[in-house]
Amino acid sequence: MPQHVPFSLPASLPRGVQHPPALPPQPRRIVFLAHRDLGNPAAGGSELLVDRLADGLTRLGHQVTLLCGGPASCRDYRVVSAGGAYGHYLRARSAFARQVGETDLLVEVCDGVPYLAPLWHRGPTLCLVNHVHTDIWRMRFGGGPLAPAARVGRRLEHWALTGAQARGLLVAVSPSTARALRALGVERDRIRVVHNGVAEPGPHTGRSPEPLFVAVGRLVEYKRIDLLLRLWERVRPVTGGRLLIVGDGPERGRLEELAGPAVRFTGRVGEAEKHRLLCAAWLLLHPSAVEGWGLVVTEAAARGTPAVAFDVPGLRDSVADGETGLLARGESSFAAAWCALALSEHRRELMGKAARDRAARYRWHRTVRQFRAVAAEAVRGWAS
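Given the sequence above, the corresponding structure tokens read:
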């Protein structure tokens, strides 16, 4: 039985899912294969995680390359574009051979559409999974003429995670993602949980004197901002104040048409402005149908801002219900939790302090260290 590094996980971690092991010899050359670079206008939490891992591993002396679709940004690690936003899935293998070459470990970031790297890469691979897209395929393509595309996507993803990845390890970003992998049939002993981190938040810039509620994320179907806008019509007469929607995406035009009074869409904002808004907010609102972890929950928590979210995979890991925020089990429950916290400054302050204390346990340097341990284990497992 290998020795494990100290690693704090929730008690709800599926039985048999292992902690990252003690550090064996490290792979020197590491390649991440991912859909986007962080500089892509459509980038989100998955891209931020990969960037923090790549940057942290580079600082630890590894040679890191990110092979992705779309534009390639200038970073402290090498970024190589394999082609267009979707065409790069077909060109990933040839781009890897031409532009990357020899590597000690290939990390495939599995975010719905797979690269099937273990089928063509002759060397150690590691699969990084934010969340399984089972329900998201249905939400994105619906039950109309595009329903067959949802079925194909779902089956391809499931086969990739259980078949193509059958020899290697999989890194899940939360216990919820680990459970979803287990439900697909992935063996427990091949799953490692490595949580997202959060940057040191810096000085607090002050809470808004008037009720201010903030939702942050990419404006896509499964984030369910349309539901939040409907609930705002019920909540606003009780709480007053303003609702800010921070982020951009293909749903923005439709959502702006649905928005009622006291709603503002900011579009994408820089880190400094996001910090200011999360400090100013009374509550972070997160109506998403599913998440891997819900990185913005931890970012808000680091600023002492509690969250109201649905009791769904990922968010039930990043929100400690009744302690750092409230988890709702239906629309009426969400509206009630929103009103209850908005009307109780004392309760918000208590939850905000608990959220800040909990967020202090999640820092990127720890995430990088834990991921590095799993990377070394993956290489060692391939050689054995």
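The chain has a mean pLDDT of 88. Try to locate this feature in the token string yourself.
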